[in-house]
Amino acid sequence: MKTADDVIRRAIIEGYGVLGEAPEADLQGLVRLAATVCGVPTAVINLIDDRFQHQIAAVGIEPAVCSREDSMCAVVFRKPGHTVVTDASLDERFAGNPFVTGEVANVKF
After folding, report:
1. CA–CA gap between residue 38 and residue 4 (Å, rounded)
2. What's this model's pTM, rounded to 2 decimal places?
3. 57 forms bridges with which residues in the sheet?
4. How far is Cα 58 from Cα 32, in angstroms, rounded to an integer?
5. Is pLDDT at 59 greater than 90 in this prediction?
6. Separation between Cα atoms, residue 13 and residue 106, nearest integer Å
7. What are the residues facing 66 on neighbouring strands?
8. Residue 28 in contact with residue 56, Cβ under 8 Å?
9. pLDDT tens digits, 6-42
């Protein structure tokens, strides 16, 4: 269900001018730092609009776009606070997600 917030979100994201462009050096630096701090081989920065999840910077994988329905972040991004999942295959919110099952990727943490 698309909401007024989704329409506004999409317009704001488009205004950033980062969709479909090469990742900015500062964003790449942030995603590398996140991967290093977490001790993981892959990390991404996502922006989620009303239709898609846009990976605007990534380490360990090529940035891509997926449908919002397949996005793990779209499940939790509207809830305040941090989300840390040590094994996504054991979390009912994510266990069947294509990023977890191997259909798209093999996300665990």
Report:
1. 35
2. 0.85
3. 45
4. 8
5. yes
6. 27
7. 53
8. no
9. 889 999 999 999 999 999 999 999 999 999 999 999 9
Contact present, 60 and 38 (Cβ < 8 Å): no
Q: How far apart are CA 102 and CA 93, in angstroms?
A: 16
* Joined tokens for residue 109: 């943490």
- Give every CB contact of residue 73 below 8 A, 6+ residues apart in sequence: 46, 48, 53
Backbone region of residue 17 per phi and psi (left: phi > 0; alpha: psi in -120 to 50; beta: other values): left
For residue 107, give both structure tokens. 């996300």
User: Which residue type occupies 83?
Assistant: T
Q: Which residues pair with 44 in a beta bridge?
A: 58
Which token pair is 46?
A: 């996502």
3-state secondary structure labels for all residues of 65-90: EEEHHHCCHHHHCCCCCCCCCCCHHH
